[in-house]
Design brief:
Length: about 350
């Protein structure tokens, strides 16, 4: 009898450190869940599909979704403050087609690229001003930005504009072999550098701590004397800048600018960020989680292609994952409220 009761106690003692860690770092639970789903999907795909070569597939996912990863980084900043940005897909389309038009008219790539990033930041600043100074809800303010950017994209051109500038196409056409079947393009390097820079900013700067504080409680952040106004403006500028960069990345990837690019991409971006563990209510989340969310999204599309099913199943699967993660988020919020 003693041996029977001793075994469960030993098991509980072994799990105790892990439980304490999770209780102290409950915000990491959704990130761990996303990472676990990614690993299970990879293992399942490798077992069921003999042609599934992990290095090549993951390299391809980064290649195809570099623009989405850049958008997810900017969206993470916004959602961490409790906001939302629906304009990123339209801003990406506008900066992409405007960049293609400028390059076709002989503007140097060294001038066109920074200009697109600045334009993206300007639209983000406009949204931030509407939210902060005119008390417009982020949903409505970013919807205004979305219509503005999409309309400007159609003003630039109603048809696609092909890019012939080698300086821009080099970003996508160059493949650097890493070894063992892995490869990466300059667009992939740019996307990963964006993730690393954003993670460092959120982790080690006062601005990053203020972003989390605003998402946790804006009133408390004000009482602590934190620069709430400046930070709220900057997160939308960052999102706009990321959208401008994504426009350049997508234009290099497709070799053309098109005014209808990015339709619905803002929803894919939000989905990737939420799957990566960032709370929609703000105050909790990590850029690395958004990276995992983008890879989960890309791997779902890849597996569905291997199955030969219609891509509509991608939406269904992502929707199911979103449902799971929203429920997990509600549990986390409830437990955090109970502790207070």
């Amino acid at each position: 009898m003693t041996s029977l009761t001793a075994a469960p106690r030993a098991h509980e003692r072994a799990l105790a450190p892990w439980r304490r860690f999770l209780s102290r770092h409950i915000a990491l639970v959704p990130v761990f869940a996303a990472a676990a789903i990614l690993v299970m999907m990879i293992v399942g795909a490798m077992i069921n599909f003999p042609n599934f070569q992990l290095p090549r597939i993951l390299s391809s996912i980064l290649l195809d979704n570099a623009y989405l990863l850049v958008l997810a980084v900017g969206m993470t900043f916004v959602i961490l403050t409790g906001g939302i940005d629906l304009s990123v897909g339209a801003v990406m389309a506008f900066t992409g087609i405007l960049c293609a038009r400028l390059l076709s008219e002989g503007v140097p790539v060294a001038v066109a690229v920074p200009a697109m990033i600045a334009i993206g930041g300007a639209i983000g600043l406009l949204i931030g001003v509407l939210v902060q100074f005119f008390d417009v809800q982020p949903f409505i303010a970013s919807l205004i930005g979305m219509f503005l950017a999409r309309g400007l994209a159609f003003v630039v051109s109603l048809e696609s504009i092909k890019v012939a500038d080698e300086g821009l196409l080099w970003l996508q056409s160059t493949r650097l072999s890493v070894g063992g079947g892995w490869y990466i393009t300059p667009t992939g390097i740019l996307a990963l550098l964006t993730v690393v820079l954003a993670a460092l900013v959120l982790r080690y700067t006062r601005f990053g701590r203020t972003v989390y504080a605003i998402g946790g409680s804006e009133q408390s952040a004000r009482l602590m004397g934190l620069p709430v106004v400046r930070t709220r403006l900057l997160v939308y500028v960052i999102s706009g800048v990321c959208a401008g960069i994504a426009g350049i990345v997508l234009t290099a990837y497709s070799g053309a600018g098109y005014p209808l690019n990015g339709v619905g991409t803002e929803l894919d971006t939000i989905a990737a960020v939420v799957i990566g563990g960032t709370l929609l209510t703000g105050g909790s989340g990590f850029v690395v989680g958004s990276l995992i969310g983008v890879f989960v999204y890309g791997l779902i599309r890849t597996i569905i292609s291997f199955l030969g099913a219609e891509q509509s199943w991608t939406r269904i699967t992502v929707g199911a994952l979103l449902l799971v993660f929203v429920v997990v988020q509600r549990v986390i919020v409830s437990r955090s409220a109970t502790r207070r």
